[in-house]
Amino acid sequence: MSTKDYLEKDYYAVLGVPKTATAEEIKKAYRKLARQYHPDANQGSTETEAKFKEVSEAYDILSDTKRRKEYDEARTLFGSGLGGYAGTGGASRSGSGGFPFDLGDLFGGTHQGGTGGGGIGDIFGGIFNRGGGTTTRAGGATTRARRGQDIESEVTLSFGEAVEGTTVSLRLTSSSACTACAGTGAKAGTTPRVCPTCEGTGAASRNLGNFAFSEPCRDCKGRGLLVDNPCEVCEGSGRGKSTRTIQARIPAGVGDGQRIKIKAKGAPGENGGPAGDLYVQIHVKPHPVFGRTGENLTITVPVTFTEAALGAEIKVPILKGLPVTLRIPEGTPNGRTFRVRGRGVARKDGTKGDLLVTVEVLVPQHLEDKARGALEDFREATAGGDPRAELIELARSE
Ligand SMILES: [Zn+2]
Ligand SMILES: [Zn+2]
């Protein structure tokens, strides 16, 4: 498709979705329309065939995040509602058939200055490079090295697995070359033929005023090949779904809600292209005892009044292994937090965060006679000091 197409065609309108449509909504709209206009369902109707092509073209662009962004940018750049520019000729200096602006200026072709810099050229370059795949010619036909799709997946980990790191099995479904036709899109027993329009290069060049674009060939959509008898499995698209299970290493220290990238574990590339990446959305189940703040684990432990008042050595559980001993000094207030070093969450460098232990002083709920007597003695021994005296004084002075 050409730049002019980009500016003229409202792919959103073609699919009947708003500009803000999600990928899912776009896919749904496309599927519905593709079924409706599919050539198999409308034998010989050139009108529906054209419609089918239009819908496919719109989906090609809008389903590809990168190209959709470029398309949006291109349209924003030139303003919306450009549908009427073709043939308005008068003001045009380019002589290209009615552009209301001078492409030479915009693209730096013949005039200096203009918008300065290759911004617009970059955008269109990006559109037509289809994500930078490399092209090799074999036997006159184009075989485009295609990077594999990025794949989204998710996994739910136990609290401990997230802290320590783990290996998980992930079942992944991705788009790949159709197995029935090996991605050619041609029915078994038939072979695609070299596109006569572009002679197999997949590219066509088009002159717009004093600027020449290289764009994907319209007839073969840049594939360099034409399919006369489409494969029945993939309906000529050459695309299929493949499912595989992979082992993915989840690094230590991941957190709930985090999305991690695992390089080259996405869909395999085609024609020598690199594999896509795998993105894993992490969910972490809460732990009944431990909490987490960043690289530290947290725990609240109960201590008796006497342990807090007199000091004590207490046992504190850790996430993995035997409890550790923590010394509570004499006169420890309720809510004080102690740090047990190296018992937290693993860091990237192999060291670990800390375990933060917060004490909660218990107040006895039931007192045996002896204990009650001892506490009454304690009250007598500490009589005279009112812990609220200062507070009351302060409140009054304000
Ligand atoms: Zn072609
Ligand atoms: Zn197929």
Q: Can you tag this structure with a few keywords?
A:
alpha+beta; 398 residues; 11 helices; elongated; 25% strand; 3-stranded mixed sheet; HSP40/DNAj peptide-binding domain
How would you summarize what this structure contains?
The protein is built from 11 helices and 17 strands. The protein is of the alpha+beta class.
Strand content: 25-35%
Alpha-beta classification: alpha+beta
Low-confidence stretches: 80-142
Number of helices: 11
CATH class of the domain at 291-397: Mainly Beta
Q: What's the arrangement of strands in the largest beta sheet? A: 12-13-17-16
Count the strands?
A: 17
Family: Belongs to the DnaJ family.
Subunit structure: Homodimer.
Domain J: 10-75
Pfam family, one: DnaJ_C
Topology:
Blueprint: H1 3-8, H2 11-15, H3 23-37, H4 46-62, H5 65-77, H6 103-107, H7 119-129, E1 135-138, E2 141-144, E3 151-157, H8 159-164, E4 166-177, E5 193-194, E6 203-208, E7 211-216, E8 225-226, E9 239-250, E10 259-262, E11 278-284, E12 291-293, E13 296-304, H9 305-310, E14 312-316, E15 324-328, E16 337-340, E17 355-362, H10 369-381, H11 389-397
Parallel strand pairs: 3-11, 13-17
Antiparallel strand pairs: 1-2, 4-9, 5-8, 6-7, 10-11, 12-13, 14-15, 16-17
Helix pairs in contact: 3-4, 5-7
The structure holds zinc ion (2 copies).
Report what the structure shows.
It is a single chain. With 398 residues, this protein is an alpha+beta fold. It has a domain at 291-397: HSP40/DNAj peptide-binding domain (Sandwich). It contains 11 helices and 17 strands. It has helices spanning 3-8, 11-15, 23-37, 46-62, 65-77, 103-107, 119-129, 159-164, 305-310, 369-381, 389-397; strands at residues 135-138, 141-144, 151-157, 166-177, 193-194, 203-208, 211-216, 225-226, 239-250, 259-262, 278-284, 291-293, 296-304, 312-316, 324-328, 337-340, 355-362. The protein has a 4-stranded mixed β-sheet. Helix 3 packs antiparallel against helix 4 and helix 5 (65-77) packs antiparallel against helix 7. It starts with a helix and ends with a helix. Mean pLDDT is 80; it is low at 80-142. The chain binds zinc ion (2 copies). Residues 195, 197-198, 202, 217, 219-220, 224 line the site of one zinc ion. One zinc ion (ZN) binds next to loops.
